[in-house]
Design brief:
Structural class: mainly alpha
Number of helices: 7
Helix content: 55-70%
Radius of gyration: 19 Å
Shape: globular
Strand content: under 5%
């Protein structure tokens, strides 16, 4: 019910003043949709494989799922603010790791966050966060795969997870590099699909974790 309600709010936000939806409403709508998807996915795993494999120990898969949710939400904000157009370069952001606009204290106010399309501050901040959360998520996922590689039974799902991560990282880079003057819609859609696929792999890894 909430998903439909916020979907209506999201669409309605694109019918007032500007012909595109509000970035915050878009992010909330997507996040709720992913929560529903993950819940249904978990239910499917429980029904199709009641005996959880218990391949992995520890809570890292849970943290990876949460981090993936945060990263996808940042991606939605990237899309909603068209942040890719500002810095279509990689690995730097126009020859800088941390853009100077983020140090301008005049932008650190509520106005910059509510009227994000009138200044470069918020889109720059979102792109900076999206890039760096991606590095953290990728690094932790690689470490998780390496840590559990000795388990022969887990190698197939780990290999699939590694493939999903690689494709998603490459799609993210290619999408960003092609944001020169316009949004590459096809690459953007593929990047979003890659995010859902990677989230699926991480939710399955969480399901396969051994409970203490």
């Amino acid at each position: 019910g909430l998903e439909g309600f916020f979907g209506w709010i999201m669409v309605a936000s694109g019918l007032i003043q500007r012909p595109w939806v509000n970035a915050y409403n878009l992010t909330l709508h997507l996040s709720l949709g992913l929560i529903i998807y993950a819940h249904l996915l978990w239910t499917y795993f429980m029904a199709s494989r009641p005996q959880r494999p218990g391949y992995y120990q520890g809570q890292l898969p849970q943290y990876l799922v949460v981090l993936a949710f945060v990263q996808i939400a940042l991606g939605a904000l990237m899309s909603g603010t068209k942040a890719g157009l500002l810095y279509p370069t990689w690995p730097d952001m126009h020859d800088s790791y941390l853009p100077t606009v983020l140090f301008d204290t005049t932008y650190w106010n509520m106005q910059s966050f509510t009227h994000y399309d009138t200044n470069p501050f918020f889109p720059t901040l979102i792109q900076f966060l999206h890039r760096n959360v991606a590095y953290i998520l990728a690094g932790l996922t690689v470490w998780f795969i390496w840590k559990n590689w000795s388990n022969v039974q887990a190698r197939r799902p780990l290999t699939i997870l590694a493939g999903l991560l690689t494709v998603q990282v490459l799609l993210g880079i290619f999408t960003l590099l092609n944001c020169v003057g316009h949004i590459p819609v096809l690459l953007g859609v593929l990047h979003q699909l890659g995010a859902v696929a990677l989230l699926t792999g991480l939710v399955y890894a969480n399901y396969c974790s051994r409970r203490a």
